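Give me a protein, keeping tokens residue-aligned:
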Amino acid sequence: MNKIDKTRLNSANTASRRLGSGSYFFSFAPMLFILAFVWPFSGGKDVQMMAGEGNPAARGTIHLHVGDNGNTEINLKADSLASPSALTPPKNAYVVWIQSPDEAPQNKGQIIIDKNQKAEMKTATPFKRFRVFITAEDQAQMQTPEGPTVLSADVAEGK
């Protein structure tokens, strides 16, 4: 055997001894442990919204994520939304609502459409099962929804 072959043989034996001794496993164990608990919760999930009759071209997606405090964090993105004043009858604002199965809808605020007919809102709720919907209203400070539903989605934890 020449000197190069002996060096390769010694390297292979050293690597197999390390692998067999478990040192590689124990060096990766903390990383695997963290990954096992963080990865399933880090990405969240997406829920597609359904368009209402008054604006059938509208599209919306809700990205859900459980926050550090246990609340459901919501990132709502909508596009192809006509200006509320272009609806029939004309309206002045789009309002986002969240409603749990046992409570009245809560006004989460107005979304403003940009020049590309897109809108985005971030909010949170303590609920795990709820409905998110957007209505076209005469004013943004409504206490109960009165106008037509433009987009809606039902959210249930684990679905």
